[in-house]
Protein: TetR family transcriptional regulator
Organism: Microbacterium keratanolyticum
Amino acid sequence: MLLMSSSKDAYHHGDLARALEDAAMQLLERMPASEVSLREVARAANVSHNAPYHHFSDRRGLLKVLAERSMVGLNAAVRTAVERADAPDAALRAGGAAYIRFAVEQANAFDVIYDPTVCIPGAPTATMAPLIVELEELLGEAAAAVGRGTADEITALWGMVHGLGTLAAAGHFTLAQALSAWDSTVASS
């Protein structure tokens, strides 16, 4: 498919949808999702300003894709940390630390994952639903391995890493303080 960009040069994408998503993810690294527009994505991908509408019905459709791709990244970070740990308690600490780091180091991606207007609580997209289950399983299995596997305990642990990450990302305390708080809380049980 040949599309004209805003310049006089034609640009050909073998996979326009992927190019648009990649451009949007790059924008998300620099700005919050609330500032990412379909027009800005088109400009970043060097395609016509109408091109994104062939793949996203509207801006909310774009944000859903950003949330889904960001959730894949969060899950990968947590999974890698848990799998690299050499003991159950280390796995729980490492998985939670990876979650907190992602929230701070990729704050815009983290925010779009949990934006309730994008990922509606209780009504995630067909793509997001299994990603949420995967994260719950990663955290739940790590918690259960150290004897903290009840539903309430898992919810509390998830809430703790989420809160620590969110507060550190907002500047209420440093990443080091958030990681230390998480580690001491988990180690003390």
